[in-house]
Amino acid sequence: MPLVSMTAMLRKAVKEQYAVGQFNLNNLEFTQAILQTAQEEQAPVMLGLSEPYIPYMGGLNCIAAMVKELIDYYEVTVPVVLHLDHGTSFEVCVKAIHAGFTSVMIDASHYSLADNMALTRKVTEVAHALGVSVEAELGRIGGREDDTYVDEAEAMYAVTSECVMLVQSTGIDALAPALGSVHGNYKGTPRLGFERMSEIQKLTQLPLVLHGGSGLRDEDFQKAIARGTAKINVNTDNQAACTSVVRRILTEQPDIYDPRHYLGPAREAVKESVRAKIRLFGCAGKA
Fold this sequence. Notes:
InterPro entries: Aldolase_TIM, Class_II_FBP_aldolase, FBA_II, Fruc_bis_ald_class-2. The chain is of the alpha/beta class. The chain has one domain (7-281): TIM Barrel, CATH 3.20.20.70. It has helices at residues 7-16, 28-41, 53-56, 60-73, 90-99, 113-129, 160-170, 194-204, 218-226, 236-252, 260-281; strands spanning 20-24, 45-50, 80-87, 103-106, 133-138, 142-145, 148-150, 174-177, 182-183, 208-210, 229-234. α2 crosses α4, α2 packs across α11 (260-281) and α10 packs antiparallel against α11. The termini are close together.
């Protein structure tokens, strides 16, 4: 099945009250694991690529080509979105679109509301003209996202009225309001703003996105989904599952040198991590 945009995928998820997982691409094995598991679970899925991984994985064209070839090779028939996560500029979003990405996130949340709206509108106009969906962010999400760190004390909740203004002025397809989640590992017990989440979704009528899905409690996911969250981003849990297996195998068998003998089992660990989230989010069988 060819790559699709996220718009119809997430609208269906809101209507049927489940969420689609966005699982980040870190290398070939992660890409294989995510696609294989989504197919096995018959679940729609989003492949997220954060900007620092563009050069690490050989550039946007290489990444898009790899995803498309793997979809063909594994005969993947479930809907798959290739999504640029936390794009920092108009230029990188446009480059991703031209490379074949079917969805982009423009993260202008660190700018003023007026500048956020202006940049987001500019990206959305280009993306929609080419059939690509757009996610935007408001407020500041704490924690570490790849090479960027925002102290949790400096994180800011999204303001409901500003979310409405952003949505109405830009025409985006999904909104990621900062409501207490963090990227990476949580330092304490997460406290998400569920009441404001409900307000924002009701007033904007858009699918909401929850960043920082690793480390949240099962009940947090269920509450968020019930309040219009249709996309949940997960990466740290998958990375930890992968690294744990590699570390164990190389410790127990120091003579191993063939990457297949440790990256193969690591890929299986990522598959099980992804599978658990797909089932928890309720999107298994929703392809």
